[in-house]
Amino acid sequence: MKLAGTIAWWIIIFFYKLRSQYWLSGEYGAGGSALYTDGSDSIRFSENLILDIENTGYGDYLNADRIVGSRGGVTRWHSVTNNVFIDCRKHAIEFANPYNFSNGNIFSHVRPGYLKMGNPLPALLLDLEAWQKCFGWEKDGKRAEVSGKFNPDSLELSITGKENELVKLLHKGPFDSYGRFINIPVDPRIKYRN
User: Fold this and answer.
1) On the CB side of 92, how many CA atoms lie within 13 Å of its CA?
2) Which tens digits make up the pLDDT trace of 8-63?
3) From CA 100, how far away is CA 60, in angstroms rounded?
4) Is residue 50 within 8 Å of 34, Cβ to Cβ?
5) How does DSSP assign 130-171, residue by residue?
6) What is the C-alpha separation between 176 and 159, in angstroms, rounded?
7) Which residue in 130, 154, 125, 149 sits closest to 141, CA to CA?
8) Are 17 and 152 in contact (CB under 8 A)?
9) By CB count within 10 A, which of 35, 143, 147, 157 is most buried?
10) pLDDT tier at 73 (50, 70, 90 boundaries)?
């Protein structure tokens, strides 16, 4: 079965096939991540589709030397909710510290230790069950066995999986509904409606 249906029409945020020379070379770098913040506070990352990412789906990094106004960044109060992470090769979510929050995210085709808590040291590389136990987050988060593919020529997105797995995506990421159609158009020139 392939996912299709209505996509939230007011905005489509779709991160796809991001790559970075730093990650390939083994050097530090957040390149190849869908979204990362560097010492920023109060970020809301919600209802996105993150697909085929070489590095991290969402990462916040502590940078005390990044001075804004009269203080450095504390990398707190980030909220990562109701996103769909498919095939993030390093981490799906990487938080610098536990003063952040995640819930309602869907994780598919991720490697072991796909949820990272950087501080306090040593860093923790966790799965969904451990993330829930350690921090009380992701009470509505789930693993799903789905696959995604984007065709940049036709601007169509295909999400495939069994129906009992696809239903987990309902109201997550940009998906308002699902059905049995073959492809989802994601052409930015088209306004999608419910």
Assistant:
1) 33
2) 333 445 565 555 555 444 555 556 788 888 888 999 999 888 998 888 999 998 88
3) 10
4) yes
5) HHHHHH---TT-EE--EEEEEETTTTEEEEEE-HHHHGGGTT
6) 14
7) 130
8) no
9) 157
10) confident
